[in-house]
């Protein structure tokens, strides 16, 4: 790995393009430049087409849900965030409990009760994920909700080829 010196404004620009909490500068630049992950990367770049496998049907259902009218009824980003989380819980019931491990520096993002989230920080505004036993922290900016949602997708092992589609559905 090589080290380069860049000016502060360029470094700030790179950091502003972060999509995942903890994403390193090389990953950001690879994504922005459309380059595949290299030897030091975090995985292989996805072409957008998922290989046939056990999750290919689930991914097709997820894409169909995002393209359909059901999500469009949710007007606010927070409502769309919660609806997407609910759909992921429905599609990945055997893996969904993994989201309970996702945390920020000071707060938990998910819990099994509103009290679990309230005890992890201030002004968390917990809301139940529709149709589930899970609660989500919702007092986040839309950008941060997108970052958390990307972490959820990674946690559930959703193929990378659909991450951007799912995450960007929050802002429609």
Number of DSSP strand runs: 3
Largest sheet: 3 strands, antiparallel
Mean pLDDT: 81
- Sum up the overall morphology in one term: globular
CATH topology of the largest domain: Replication modulator SeqA, C-terminal DNA-binding domain
Structural class: mainly alpha
CATH class term of the largest domain: Mainly Alpha
Q: What does it look like?
A:
The protein has a 3-stranded antiparallel sheet. Helix content is 41%, strand content 5%. With 172 residues, it is mainly alpha-helical. The chain has 2 domains: 1-39, Arc Repressor Mutant; 56-171, Replication modulator SeqA, C-terminal DNA-binding domain. Helix 4 runs parallel beside helix 6 (142-155). The chain is globular. The longest helix is centred in the middle third of the chain and has 15 residues, at 77-91. It is built from 7 helices and 3 strands. Residues 40-52 have low confidence and may be disordered.
Chain-wise SSE layout:
Layout: H1 8-16, H2 25-33, H3 56-67, H4 77-91, E1 110-111, H5 114-118, E2 126-128, E3 135-137, H6 142-155, H7 163-168
Antiparallel strand pairs: 1-3, 2-3
Any descriptors?
172 residues, mainly alpha, three-stranded antiparallel sheet, globular
């Amino acid at each position: 790995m090589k080290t380069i010196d860049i000016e502060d404004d360029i470094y700030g620009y790179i950091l502003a393009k972060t999509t995942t909490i903890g994403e390193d500068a090389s990953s950001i630049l690879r994504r922005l430049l459309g380059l595949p992950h290299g030897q030091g990367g975090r995985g292989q770049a996805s072409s957008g087409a998922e290989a046939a496998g056990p999750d290919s049907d689930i991914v097709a259902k997820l894409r169909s849900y995002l393209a359909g009218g059901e999500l469009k009824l949710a007007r606010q980003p927070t409502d769309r965030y919660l609806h997407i989380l609910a759909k992921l819980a429905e599609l990945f019931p055997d893996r969904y409990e993994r989201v309970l491990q996702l945390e920020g520096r000071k707060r938990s993002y998910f819990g099994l009760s509103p009290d679990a989230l309230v005890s992890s920080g201030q002004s968390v505004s917990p809301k139940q994920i529709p149709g589930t036993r899970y609660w989500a922290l919702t007092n986040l900016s839309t950008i941060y909700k997108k970052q958390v949602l990307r972490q959820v997708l990674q946690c559930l092992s959703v193929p990378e080829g659909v991450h951007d589609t799912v995450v960007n559905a929050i802002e429609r």
